[in-house]
Automatic annotation (TrEMBL):
Pfam families per UniProt: TetR_N
HTH tetR-type domain: residues covered: 89-149
Gene Ontology MF, one: transcription cis-regulatory region binding
Keywords: DNA-binding
SUPFAM superfamilies to which the protein is assigned, alphabetical: Homeodomain-like
Protein name: Putative HTH-type transcriptional regulator YvdT
The entry's DNA-binding region: 112-131
InterPro entries for this protein: Homeodomain-like_sf, HTH-type_TetR-like_transc_reg, HTH_TetR
Length: 281
């Protein structure tokens, strides 16, 4: 076996396996200090997932702070990710609201500073006084909108219905909202982005996984789901939601919304089948 090396988390983590090693190792720098850990897996895909979790845990530990949002951050309205109200009294929030609205229309790549500032009714210099860069503002777009989407799913997860029905509703609600706000949904899931934005999207996946893990744990205790590692199953469900939605959201012109929602129904059914069935022998 020869030595191999790959990158994860947008190049922020190195994955490597030396010729005499069995498991993939990951290496990253935190606060100027290089740290390493064994992934304890020979599978590269599993090693990448380990690296994502490992990086987020260490990055949060070293930074000690959560992403900063304006005190009066705009509320995302009802059914469609990206629909926001403009709070006129807070310039930072107005800029964030304008950025969310623009990304929901054109995605991250075409969300330019000049257009964001114009929509907010402010000068570009005002934008840079509130956000250190375009990327920093777009990171906050992900942080704000994704938190709202997680809150919607978490609200369903707290319901009184049987766990099987809650799981299906969580999966369908997440998917249907992504379809209805398809441009923002694609931006939050799969659009090529800078590494800083990708890290925030990783946090999004982590938060969703914790919601689904809670529902799966509940189903196991109810006897509705087969005994299983809830954390692993939740990661698989979120992965299937993200990956299965990429195609429908990318094919904007050749599939109707009704057809997309039918696919979301199928995805939600799959998520339920994945945790209620019997374990393999």
């Amino acid at each position: 076996m020869k030595s191999e090396k790959h990158e994860a988390v947008g190049g922020r983590v190195n994955l490597y396996r030396r010729a005499n090693s069995r498991y993939w190792q990951c290496q990253g720098s935190f606060g100027g200090v290089s740290e390493r850990a064994s992934t304890k897996t020979e599978n590269l895909d599993e090693a990448r997932r380990f690296a994502e979790n490992w990086y987020l845990e260490h990055e949060a530990k070293h930074s000690g702070v959560a992403p900063e949002l304006p005190a009066s951050a705009p509320a995302v309205l009802s059914d469609t990710p990206g629909m926001v109200a403009f709070p006129q009294h807070d310039k930072k929030a107005r800029l964030l609201a304008a950025a969310i609205e623009l990304v929901s229309e054109v995605g991250f790549r075409d969300a330019q500073i000049s257009t964001i500032a114009e929509r907010a009714g402010l000068a570009q210099g005002t934008l840079y006084r509130n956000y250190k860069s375009r990327t920093a503002l777009l990171v906050q777009v992900v942080a704000h909108v994704s938190q709202h989407e997680v809150d919607v799913v978490a609200g369903i997860a707290m319901g009184d219905e049987p766990a099987k029905e809650i799981l299906r509703r969580c999966a369908y609600t997440f998917g249907s909202r992504a379809v209805r706000g398809r441009r923002m949904g694609y931006a939050l899931v799969a659009e090529p982005v800078e590494s800083e934005i990708e890290v925030e999207r990783l946090r999004y996946r982590q938060k969703l996984m914790r919601v689904f893990e809670t529902v799966i744990d509940r189903g196991i205790h109810e006897g509705a789901f087969v005994d299983q590692p809830a954390q692993v199953s939740a990661a698989c469900i979120v992965g299937s939601l993200f990956e299965a939605l990429v195609g429908p959201m990318a094919r904007v012109n050749d599939i109707t919304e009704a057809e997309q929602l039918a696919q979301v129904e199928a995805i939600a059914d799959f998520c339920v089948r994945a945790v209620v069935g019997k374990a393999s022998a």
